[in-house]
Write a structure and sequence with these properties.
Chains A, B: Homodimer. Within each dimer, one monomer is responsible for RNA recognition and catalysis, while the other monomer binds to the replacement base PreQ1. Two copies of one chain form a homodimer. Chain A is of the alpha/beta class. Chain A is about 45% helix and about 20% strand.
């Protein structure tokens, strides 16, 4: 069994932990951030550059790849790794969240979820078993069970009902998984529970009882206030075991990540660094900035004076603004490299701080004096 | 004087020559192809990747950079090289061709050309002196005099008149240039003459008499038939001296380049490899292909089985088609890398063939058995 999770250090003041997740395609140090390769590429940036930034694991979307290019193409390619020329670890989601957020139509039944493709309107039925079969073809290293993402807001009765369905689907997933040859791939369960603390704890307990290789917190960042998100996260984590990796799906901002790490989360994915880059929004040690802003027209400093990324070492804000305003494609590459570097460097600093027993100071500093913390 | 041009080999059967152009920023082996960085970037690809393909010199557009970001920004950046992070040679055009092809309005007078920006409609007057002043701020290594691009078709009287104006502007350019400190940059003259052989020869003679560091053939590829283009090229070249570099502006296809090399041209620029890449049109040793084509859906071969570029070594047609259809930005990077490699490799093969005294066979083979020639 390759799926082995070791906790190397525990922070004494928070629940943060430094871990090592051993997968069949290499070791991942946690807490880790996973850049998002929605349709089989990290948008605008080739794989070597992504690995050059220190990326160990990326997330790809089952929903997108299932609809386009479709399973047959990826099967004939020998799986997603060779299709997209990515040698390191791939985690795939189950498609449940994209069915919730993207599909033109969604009808949840006991069997699975009926939906219409956002691309061509074609009709599909995604079942827990199919979600795993798709991921088997993708041959990802870490796979997720199909869950039901509960809308926000949602009343208690409905949330309870959908959470129960998530549990029945998780059970079916586990049964299906045990009959397949999984070649050392890992399967993670997902806890739901809506915005109700007791349902969250109960869901986590039920999912943990099924014994997955790791546990994810689903259904957060769906529009709820941030405090509520953190409360629900805390309730869920309280019922997760210490000795398995914990994954907070689709979250979030650097601040969200810091809070979640303090609560004991090990894994994150989010489109923010890449999507923001394409929109010209940049993460810096001094906060966010928009490269479109007129004052950058003749600002010959790098995006972030404290950053050592390729883009900051070689280009000025003035140049990047010029490229952005002119619609020059190179700018998406340059800004994506910077934002991914920012996120990956943040995670490296978090891990270092935990290892050195100063995570709480690091976190406090991040809020108080961003400019000093992320330098070097 | 850095601008020194050596002819190393002459083909015995054609007028092709292998040369070495020594510039203040490095040596360029000719015949050479210059990728186009219109607005200060090779679209979609960072500079190191462009140099990694063997690029020694790129072309940037004076017209575009003058309008956006404007001279002040580039002056404050310390010139175009540092603005765009390009260490090798930059050739800039004079802006004349873009005023002809892009501006909303163009009125040619003795003093210069009045035009309205295609970006914001602002009015400008580009004179021969201003064209050189702009290029001085850009601090390009090879600069072009302002000429008048003659439309096609154009009657003899008008062509003669506009060619005479080009000559007066060249004279003014030369006078202006001699009063400036040029720090080893080179200045090339441009011959016009419309589609009239005698005017072409006469224009070349007049321009050569002014003694520039190199000579360009302007006003071709403006809509005329290919045979006519080659005739006019031949007439112009017949009056150019042997011992200066000869530049055919804005041309062209691989076939055009082969013919022009055979006629003694040393330098080329063209948007074809980069623009075609963005439209999904790929150059291969077996001809052009469009990556959108349905049969590529499950074609797991590289773009060109005979190509050793990064893209062909790592990606299949099926993957590239998937990215293109999905609008994934990475595809512009990957296809641009391939097409530029194709052009640069073609030039390297041309130089090798001239050096080895077998250019004529190479050229004949290119037409007859493309698939064998460009391999390895």
């Amino acid at each position: 069994m390759w799926g082995y999770f070791h906790i190397l250090e525990r922070d004494t003041h928070t629940k943060a932990r430094l871990g090592r997740l051993v997968t069949r395609r290499g070791i991942i140090e946690t807490p880790v951030f996973m850049p998002v390769a929605t349709a089989g590429s990290i948008k605008a940036v080739p794989p070597e550059v992504v690995t050059g930034l220190g990326t160990r694991v990326i997330l790809a979307n089952t929903y997108h790849l299932y609809l386009r290019p479709g399973l047959e193409i990826i099967r004939q390619s020998g799986g997603l790794h060779s299709f997209m020329n990515w040698q390191r670890v791939i985690l795939t989601d189950s498609g449940g969240f994209q069915v919730y957020s993207l599909a033109q139509f969604r009808k949840i039944q006991e069997e699975g979820v009926h939906f219409k493709s956002h691309i061509d309107g074609s009709e599909h039925l995604l079942t827990p078993e199919l979600a795993l079969e798709i991921q088997e073809v993708l041959n990802s290293d870490i796979r997720m069970v199909l869950d039901v993402c509960i809308p926000y807001p949602c009343d208690r009765k409905k949330a309870k009902e959908l959470t129960a369905l998530t549990h029945r689907w998780a059970e079916r997933s586990k049964n299906f998984w045990e009959k397949r040859e999984n070649k050392g791939a890992l399967l993670f369960g997902i806890a739901q529970g809506g915005m109700f603390e007791d349902l969250r704890r109960e869901s986590a307990r039920v999912i943990v009882e099924m014994d997955f290789d790791g546990y994810a917190v689903g259904g957060l960042s769906v529009g709820e206030p941030r405090d509520l998100m953190l409360e629900m996260l805390s309730a869920t984590l309280s019922a997760f075991p210490e000795d398995r990796p914990r994954y907070l799906m689709g979250v979030g901002t650097p601040e969200d990540i810091l809070e979640a790490v303090a609560m004991g989360v090990d894994m994150f994915d989010c489109v923010l660094p890449t999507r923001n880059a394409r929109r010209g929004t940049i993460f810096t040690s001094e906060g966010k900035l928009s490269i479109r802003n007129a004052p950058f027209k003749n600002d010959f400093r790098p995006l972030d004076p404290n950053c050592q990324c390729y883009t900051c070492r070689n280009y000025t804000r003035a140049y990047l603004r010029h490229l952005f305003i002119s619609g020059e494609l190179l700018v998406y590459y340059l800004l994506t490299v910077h934002n991914l570097y920012f996120y990956l460097k943040l995670m490296a600093k978090i891990r270092k701080a935990i290892a050195e027993g100063r995570f709480m100071e690091f976190k406090a500093d991040f809020y108080q004096r961003k400019e000093e913390i992320l330098c070097g």
